[in-house]
Amino acid sequence: MHEDQLGYKRLVIRKNNSTESPITTFTSLVNAKTALENWVSEFNLCQKLCHLHDGNSGCFHYSIKKCQVPV
Q1: Are 69 and 46 in contact (CB under 8 A)?
Q2: pTM of the full predicted structure?
Q3: Which of 18, 23, 43, 61 has the most C-beta neighbours closer than 10 Å?
Q4: Is residue 48 part of a domain?
Q5: Is residue 70 one of the residues assigned to a domain?
């Protein structure tokens, strides 16, 4: 997790290194992405802030009122 310039805390998937303390680890990228997608749905997180949506408009969850972040 990291905090961006606007103060949003973002969940990210990346290879583990010795300088950071991960929230959790996974055995594959597919498992990590599946877990992140489940957390986004369960906790109404922003797909865009979790790097699951690319684009200039708000994420899909924002369009159906499950996300409160209009980024």
Answers
A1: yes
A2: 0.73
A3: 61
A4: yes
A5: no
